[in-house]
Amino acid sequence: MHELTLTQSLVDRVADATAGRRVSAVHVRVGLLSGVVPEAMEFCFDVVTSGGPLDGAALLVERVPGRISCRTCGAESATEDLLLVCGCGSADVAIVAGQELTLTRVELVRETSCA
């Protein structure tokens, strides 16, 4: 399960970047053609944040649909299958979207000041 390693790296980077500030949410974009299973990543996030600096933070996943463009017929179409074949039967396609695995935003807990 490579999602565990990916998620641990994500958590480590966020923890380093936030330097001890409390994190309430981590937002990521996961393409359906990236090879990453969002549900597995969400499970791993809960495991790797437990007891650490991101404990209690939420992982919010935006799923990006796959899109391909056919070099043979010129059609662009949606796909959820890693077997990339155009409706015309050609496998000569380019992936237009769906390979993303991107950290898009980190939400921090607003600390109240005692003034």
Walk me through this protein's architecture.
With 115 residues, the chain is of the alpha+beta class. It has a domain at 2-65 and 98-108: 2-Layer Sandwich (hypothetical protein PF0899 fold). The chain is built from two helices and six strands. It has helices spanning 2-18, 38-49; strands spanning 23-31, 58-64, 66-70, 76-79, 93-97, 101-108. The strands form two sheets. It has a three-stranded mixed sheet, covered by helices on one side. A three-stranded antiparallel sheet has the order 4-3-5, with no helix packed on it. A hairpin with a 5-residue loop joins strand 3 (66-70) and strand 4. Helix 1 crosses helix 2. The longest helix is centred in the N-terminal third of the chain and has 17 residues, at 2-18. It is elongated, with a radius of gyration of 18 Å. The termini are far apart.
Q: Judging from the principal axes of the Cα atoms, what is the shape?
A: elongated
- Count of helical stretches: 2
Distance from N terminus to C terminus (CA atoms, Å) equals 48 Å
CATH architectural name of the domain at 2-65 and 98-108 = 2-Layer Sandwich
In the CATH scheme, the class of the domain at 2-65 and 98-108 would be Alpha Beta
**Could you give a short account of the major beta sheet?**
3 strands, mixed
Class by helix and strand content?
alpha+beta
Beta-strand content: 25-35%
Keywords: Metal-binding, Nickel, Zinc
Binding site for Zn(2+): 70, 73, 86, 88
Function: Involved in the maturation of [NiFe] hydrogenases. Required for nickel insertion into the metal center of the hydrogenase.
Binding site for Ni(2+): 2
